[in-house]
C-alpha cells in the first residue's frame, strides 16, 4: 500500500540528506523564489550543484494563508519571508527580472546574461488583463484581485475594513484552470468570518464562471454551519458569469444582471507568467506542457517548468504541488548530471482549506507518471467527509497551520 510517508520519502531523501556539499557538478539557474523555485534551488544546492536563483522581489509573500490576512487573523508580516535560508544553503541570489532565454543563458533586465546547463522556471502566473472587459492594471487598484499576495492583499484588507456594515462584497471566480482552485471559496469563508465578527449585516456574493467548484460540498456545509445566509454562490446557469466590470462606477455586470458592491474582489483569468511566454515554453493555452518524469519542457530542451505555470497532466496548481514538483525536478537534474536515468516519480498533493479559524478540511491526491504525463492514482487520495464533528474540523485547521509552517520552512528556511 502506498502511504504519504513512502511517497514523500522517495522524493525528498537524496537532496535533504546531502548536507555536505559535493564538488559542483552542474550550473543550474532557477527563476522564481516561490514554493517551487526556492525548494528546487535549496535541494540542488544541498546536492552539490552550482545554483543561482533569480527573483525580482525583495521578499516572498505567500499566497497560501493570505486569506487569513484578509480576515484579520494574521498580519501581512506573518506570511512574508526573506531569502536568508537559501543563502545559508549556498544558493546565489540575484534580485533581477528575467526577460528571455537564449541558447544556454538567461537574459536579465539589468545585467549580464546568466549561463546555465539546466534552467528551472517557476515564475507563477500572470493575470490576463483584458480577458475580462474593463479589467486592467488600473482597475485592479479599485477592484483588487489579491491573487498575487502583497500590496494587493493589503489593499483588499483595507477596503474590507473601510466598508460600512450592511455592504456587499462581490468575489468573481474564473473558469479553470487557475492558481489554487479552492482559493476563492476559502476567501469568501474567511472574509465571512471577519464580517460575522465586525459587520454582521453584510453579505458576500460569489459570481462564478463554473457550474461546480473544488470541495463544494464541504464549503457549502461550512457556510450553512458558520455563516447562515451570509454567502451566496451564483453559477453561470443562474447568471453568475461575469461579462464585464466598470471600476469607475463600481459595477460588476453578468450576462443577466449588474451589481454595485461596496467591495469587488475580481479574480481574472490567468496564464503562465511572462518569462514562460518569452522563453517559448508556453503553448497556445498560455500554460507550459512538460514531462511528468522530469518536468522538462515539451517545447524547449534543458528548460524545466514547475509550479503554477506548468501543465504536467492531472496535477492541480497549488503550493503543495509546486513543492513536490520541485523535489522531483531536483532529483531528475541531479541524475542527469550524474549520467543516471531519472526515476519515474509518484507525487502527492494535499490541499488544506480554512473555512474559519477552527474549521478546516482537506483533499489529497497521488499522481503517477506514464508516457511522460501525470495521472491521478485511483483510490490513493481522499477528501474530508461531509458531516464530520467540530473536533475533527478543529484538528484539520491545526493541520493546515502545521503544513504552512512546514512548507515555508522547507522552501525558504
UniProtKB/TrEMBL annotation:
InterPro entries: FAD/NAD-bd_sf, FAD/NAD-binding_dom, FAD/NAD-linked_Rdtase_dimer_sf, FCSD_central, FlavoCytC_S_DH_flav-bd, FlavoCytC_S_DH_flav-bd_sf, SQRD. Keywords: FAD, Flavoprotein, Oxidoreductase. Residues 153-268 form the Sulfide dehydrogenase [flavocytochrome c] flavoprotein chain central domain. One of its GO terms (molecular function) is flavin adenine dinucleotide binding. Its EC number is 1.8.2.3. Residues 344-410 form the Flavocytochrome c sulphide dehydrogenase flavin-binding domain. It comes from the Bacteria. Residues 27-138 form the FAD/NAD(P)-binding domain. SUPFAM superfamilies: FAD/NAD(P)-binding domain (SSF51905), FAD/NAD-linked reductases, dimerisation (C-terminal) domain (SSF55424). Pfam families: FCSD-flav_bind, FCSD_central, Pyr_redox_2. The keyword Oxidoreductase applies. PANTHER family: FAD-DEPENDENT PYRIDINE NUCLEOTIDE-DISULPHIDE OXIDOREDUCTASE, PTHR43755. This is Sulfide dehydrogenase (Flavocytochrome c), flavoprotein subunit. It comes from Wenxinia marina DSM 24838.
Amino acid at each position: 500500500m502506498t502511504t504519504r510517508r513512502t511517497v514523500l520519502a522517495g522524493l525528498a531523501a537524496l537532496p535533504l540528506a546531502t548536507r555536505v556539499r559535493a564538488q559542483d557538478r552542474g550550473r543550474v539557474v532557477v527563476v522564481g523564489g516561490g514554493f517551487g523555485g526556492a525548494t528546487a534551488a535549496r535541494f540542488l544546492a544541498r546536492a552539490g550543484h552550482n545554483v543561482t536563483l533569480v527573483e525580482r522581489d525583495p521578499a516572498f509573500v505567500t499566497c497560501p494563508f493570505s486569506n487569513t490576512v484578509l480576515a484579520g487573523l494574521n498580519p501581512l508580516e506573518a506570511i512574508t519571508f526573506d531569502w536568508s535560508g537559501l543563502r545559508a544553503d549556498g544558493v546565489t541570489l540575484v534580485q533581477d527580472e528575467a526577460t528571455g532565454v537564449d541558447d544556454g543563458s538567461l537574459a536579465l533586465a539589468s545585467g549580464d546574461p546568466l549561463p546555465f546547463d539546466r534552467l528551472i522556471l517557476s515564475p507563477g502566473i500572470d493575470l490576463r488583463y483584458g480577458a475580462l472587459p474593463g479589467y486592467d492594471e488600473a482597475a485592479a487598484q479599485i477592484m483588487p484581485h489579491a491573487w498575487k499576495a502583497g500590496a494587493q492583499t493589503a489593499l483588499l484588507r483595507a477596503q474590507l475594513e473601510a466598508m460600512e456594515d450592511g455592504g456587499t462584497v462581490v468575489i468573481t471566480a474564473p473558469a479553470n484552470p487557475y492558481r489554487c482552485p479552492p482559493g476563492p471559496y476559502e476567501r469568501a469563508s474567511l472574509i465571512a468570518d471577519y464580517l460575522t465578527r465586525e459587520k454582521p449585516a453584510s453579505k458576500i456574493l460569489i459570481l462564478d464562471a463554473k457550474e461546480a467548484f473544488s470541495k463544494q460540498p464541504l464549503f457549502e456545509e461550512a457556510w450553512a454551519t458558520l455563516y447562515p445566509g451570509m454567502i451566496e454562490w451564483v453559477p453561470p446557469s443562474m447568471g453568475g458569469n461575469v461579462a464585464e466590470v466598470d471600476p469607475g462606477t463600481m459595477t460588476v455586470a453578468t450576462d443577466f444582471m449588474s451589481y454595485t458592491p461596496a467591495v469587488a474582489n475580481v479574480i481574472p483569468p490567468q496564464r503562465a507568467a511572462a518569462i514562460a511566454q518569452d522563453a517559448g515554453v508556453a503553448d497556445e493555452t498560455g500554460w507550459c506542457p512538460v514531462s511528468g518524469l522530469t518536468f522538462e519542457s515539451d517545447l524547449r530542451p534543458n528548460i524545466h517548468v514547475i509550479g503554477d505555470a506548468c501543465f504536467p497532466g492531472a496535477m492541480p496548481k497549488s503550493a503543495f504541488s509546486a513543492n513536490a514538483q520541485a523535489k522531483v525536478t531536483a532529483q531528475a537534474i541531479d541524475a542527469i548530471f550524474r549520467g543516471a536515468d531519472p526515476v519515474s516519480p509518484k507525487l502527492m498533493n494535499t490541499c488544506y482549506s480554512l473555512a474559519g479559524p477552527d474549521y478546516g478540511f482537506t483533499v489529497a491526491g497521488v499522481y503517477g507518471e506514464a508516457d511522460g504525463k501525470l495521472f491521478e492514482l485511483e483510490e490513493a487520495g481522499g477528501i474530508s467527509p461531509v458531516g464530520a464533528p467540530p473536533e475533527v474540523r478543529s484538528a484539520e485547521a491545526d493541520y493546515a497551520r502545521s503544513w504552512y509552517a512546514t512548507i515555508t520552512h522547507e522552501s525558504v528556511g
